[in-house]
UniProtKB/TrEMBL annotation:
InterPro entries: RutC-like_sf, YjgF/YER057c/UK114. PANTHER family: BLR7761 PROTEIN (PTHR43857), YJGH FAMILY PROTEIN (PTHR43857:SF1). Pfam families: Ribonuc_L-PSP (PF01042). It comes from the Bacteria. Coiled coil: none annotated. This is RidA family protein.
């Protein structure tokens, strides 16, 4: 049984300046902070491509979950923060591919632009921590 809380950093400079980590794995749950489609240098990937950004984010999140001993199949809920809700179907296609066998609960939230206007979407999730 895993009782130890594990904090997982992505190394992003935002974590230090804003006081957070990419994910926290507790006894039963893993909470992954809102994540954007950025590379290691903080540059936005897949500019203008909602589906591409969604896929990049979910790949990044799968890697974080793996560090906590979980996978996308353990995800209970995702929250997609979209700057343009009319493009939700584009994000939905990438989301559906990632969760084809184990769809989680899903919320779509329309937001104002992010810090970098090239960011079209951020995603956060909650997963069950396998025992």
């Amino acid at each position: 049984m895993q009782n130890e809380t594990k904090r997982i950093s992505s190394g992003s400079p935002w974590e230090t300046t804003s006081g957070y980590v990419r994910a926290v794995a507790g006894r039963d749950l893993i909470c992954v902070s809102a994540t954007a489609a950025t590379d290691a240098d903080g540059q936005v990937m897949c500019r203008g491509d909602m589906e591409g950004q969604t896929a990049v984010i979910l790949e990044k999140m799968a890697a974080v979950l793996a560090q906590a001993g979980a996978g996308l199949g353990d995800v209970l809920q995702t929250r997609l923060y979209l700057t343009d809700i009319t493009r939700a179907a584009e994000a939905g296609r990438a989301h559906a591919r990632a969760f084809a066998d184990t769809p989680p609960a899903l919320s779509l939230i329309h937001v104002l632009p992010f810090v970098d206007p090239g960011m079209l979407i951020e995603i956060e999730l909650i997963a069950e921590r396998p025992r």
